[in-house]
Amino acid sequence: MPSSSLAVPAFSSRPQATAKLFLDFDGIAFEGTWGNTGRAPGVVPAYANDGNTSSFTASELNSISEIYQRVAEAFSPFNVDVTTVDPGTPTAGQSVRIVIGGNNAWYGGGGGVAYIASYTYANYSFGTAWVFPDNLGGGNPKFVADATIHEAGHTFGLYHQQQRNADGTLVSEYRSAENDAISAPNMGVAYYRDRGVWSNGTIGYENNQFINQDDLAQLGSSASSPYNHPRLGTGYANGFGLRADDFGGSIAGATPLPNSPGESIFSSPGPRVLSISGVIERVTDVDMFSFSVFGGDVTIRVDNAPFGAMLDARLLLYNSTGALLASVDPAISTSTAGLGLDAWWTGPLDAGLYYVGVGSAGNYGDVGQYTLSIMLPFATVPEPASAAIALSVLPLLCRRRAGPAYTRGL
Hints:
It is built from four helices and 22 strands. With 410 residues, the chain is of the alpha/beta class. The longest helix is centred in the C-terminal third of the chain and has 23 residues, at 386-408. The protein is globular and about 70 Å long.
């Protein structure tokens, strides 16, 4: 039963965004039938993975946090707020909600269900989508998050990414793999792959032609950047579009990392870690940063989102003149640390100013959040030679001896 005593942590990925994707974990007493299905959800219990829907355990709160983080990563390139804070009744062009609780007994099948493009015509009923954690590994956070991303994709106008033979014959309504060993389409089935991604692929076959859907273009559609969806046309543009680029993409527009360019060697000799987080919104996006080093071994890391990472990151290192020193993009592999999605570089750098760029490997769907960390060594302060010390101290001693006599003479 829904209970007001169920306290869901208040998470918001982009609170300034007017478009809201509300994740509803604490149950609902749904009024009437859902949409035009004639089915009545009734009382839908809160999310649970221990069978007790009256309270959240620490384990369940951790699972809710992980589910939220995975969904927030999936929608991080867009100007939409993934939130657990209830924005009120779903409203066309403003908000949809995903109720995450219970099983599919009232509906009759699947791990979740939603109306396609309902964000553009949302109301209390049509603006509500459903995910059934009891049918998803008993509330397994990855499975629940994958289903939530999938159903949210439907509300924003996405159809299933299918698997078809070369002659157009349908193999599966849900494609389960992309072009590497770790990825699967969010709008197919991503449960059994480490990485769910947005895809540009087949959603149908008609008149001897494949019908393709560009997920990123549809999700990022707006009045200024419409997408002619093969089934919806341009009239169903979501409106919120891509989020604005958060950092400059050139050396001239590089963002100084905290306490780096121009800082005094004496005020901050190190060691220290410079760190900043951002989002790669487009596969062509590069975020550029500047930092200074006093000489020595330096480690630079680009780490992806801790849960549900989409970005296959590329790290670029330049010297003060803009010459490229390193370009790092590990191969994707199930046997590679971070699955090959993270990027890192370690090596000696002379004292000076440097630039580091964070970008995408460039394949479709290589977008998402990252954290850049630069580990700098201790700075060394040159000590003067012993002869120089003796010469510099002697005049000081002489002046001190002469000082009192001069004073007495006044």
